[in-house]
Amino acid sequence: MSSDLFQFTNNAGLGAVLGNDVAINAYREGKLPFPHGTIIAALHYRNVPSDENNKVFGQAQSFVPGPPINIQFMVKDSTKYAATGGWGFGHFQDGKPADAAFMKPCFPCHEKAKVTDFVFTSYAP
Fold first, then answer.
1. How far is the C-alpha of 109 from the C-alpha of 96, rounded, in Å?
2. 97 lies in a domain?
3. Residue 125: inside a domain, yes or no?
4. Which of 67, 87, 94, 104 has the highest CB neighbour number within 10 Å of its CB?
5. In the chain, what is the straight-line distance between the N-terminal and C-terminal CA atoms, in Å?
6. Which structural domain range is residue 62 located in?
C-alpha cells in the first residue's frame, strides 16, 4: 500500500483509506473509471479519548484510534467482478472474513456512487 493516506472521521470512529500504487496514481490523475488492479483498503477504528492530549487541554476533546472495528477492501477486476461494476468487496472483522450474506448489500450501496466508479472516497492531497 502507498504511504499516501486519506483520513476521515465520524461520530463512531476514526479511519484511514489506503490504496496501492494503481489506486493512488488514479486518484492523483483524476482517472475514472479506476484501472484494473486498483486496490483500496479502509481501516476503521473506534474513537478513544487521548488522556495524554486531554491533560494538555484540561478537558476531553482529543481522540485517537482505539480498537479496530473492521477492515474493508475494494479490488478492481472488470472481468472477475463484472456483475458488481468491476469491483470485488471484502470485509474483515476480528481477523475473519465476512460471509456472502453479509457482503450482499455492498454493491447496492456503492451503486449510489456510480459517477465516481462506485467509490465514495475522494483524494485529498
1. 22
2. yes
3. no
4. 87
5. 16
6. 6-116
